[in-house]
């Protein structure tokens, strides 16, 4: 199937079929794919937590507001987190990069803007991996939903994360065909091409 066809097919799934769970083989493939996600100067300031354990998933579901039922029904929940400590990030992720990337880009264009701007830039890299991941899911025939609507502090506590802070999570599974958001029922809504694309 072409990428355009896949883009039309993927949608933010609101209701999953609890009887159809993602396989261990597909989970392993998604792990390999997300590891290969690109990031600015290959900085990789992230951690991806794959949750399949029903007890942990139930706890996270209770902190997922309106998505609580879908987190409970789905087979896989992936939590996307950003590295918290900039000093550790620079020692572990930046210092191993080619010198020119550090002195020519990271130091003058990112670090020089201060800690808050550096953290925002790190978060951008994690968000970029979301787009990559959503495309990977639909290419494997899997439905998925990104969720910023989670209690991030509670997620961090439940997952006992050290040094990483959750930004958002993604449910991955098979849509229930009665889902009211399914594109065959609720057509995709986007601005027209000429409203969002300029060709010069
Ligand atoms: C970063 C991000 C965060 C989102 N957070 C939520 C969320 O918390 N709950 C939810 O049901 N959908 C969430 N969505 C899904 C969007 O509402 C959805 O992608 C958008 O309406 C476009 O619809 P489509 O993905 O079905 O084409 C999120 C999407 C993105 C990209």
TrEMBL record:
Gene Ontology molecular function, alphabetical: oxidoreductase activity
Keyword annotations from UniProtKB, A to Z: NADP, Oxidoreductase
Keyword Nucleus: no
Signal sequence, renumbered to the chain: none
Top-rank lineage group of the source organism: Bacteria
Pfam families: Nitroreductase (PF00881)
Ranges for domain Nitroreductase: 8-174
Listed InterPro entries: NfsB-like (IPR033878), Nitroreductase (IPR029479), Nitroreductase-like (IPR000415)
UniProt xrefs under Gene3D superfamilies: NADH Oxidase (3.40.109.10)
Family to which this protein belongs: Belongs to the nitroreductase family.
Protein name from the UniProt record: NAD(P)H-dependent oxidoreductase
Organism (species): Dyadobacter luteus
């Amino acid at each position: 199937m072409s990428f355009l066809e896949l883009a039309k097919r993927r949608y933010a799934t609101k209701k999953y079929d609890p009887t159809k769970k993602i396989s261990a083989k597909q989970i392993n493939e998604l792990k390999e794919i997300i590891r290969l996600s690109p990031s600015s100067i290959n900085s990789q300031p992230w951690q991806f937590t794959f949750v399949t354990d029903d007890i942990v998933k139930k706890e996270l579901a209770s902190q997922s507001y309106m998505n609580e039922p879908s987190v409970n029904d789905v087979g896989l929940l992936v939590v996307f987190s950003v590295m918290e400590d900039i000093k550790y990030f620079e020692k572990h992720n930046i210092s191993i990069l080619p010198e020119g990337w550090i002195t020519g880009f990271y130091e003058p264009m990112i670090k020089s803007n201060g800690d808050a701007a550096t953290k925002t830039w790190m978060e951008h890299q994690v968000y970029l991996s979301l787009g990559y991941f959503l495309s990977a899911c639909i290419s494997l025939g899997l439905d998925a939903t990104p969720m910023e609507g989670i209690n991030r502090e509670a997620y961090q506590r439940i997952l006992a994360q050290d040094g990483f802070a959750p930004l958002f999570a993604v449910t991955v599974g098979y849509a229930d065909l009665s889902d009211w958001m399914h594109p065959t029922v609720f057509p995709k809504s986007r601005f027209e091409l000429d409203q969002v694309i300029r060709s010069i």
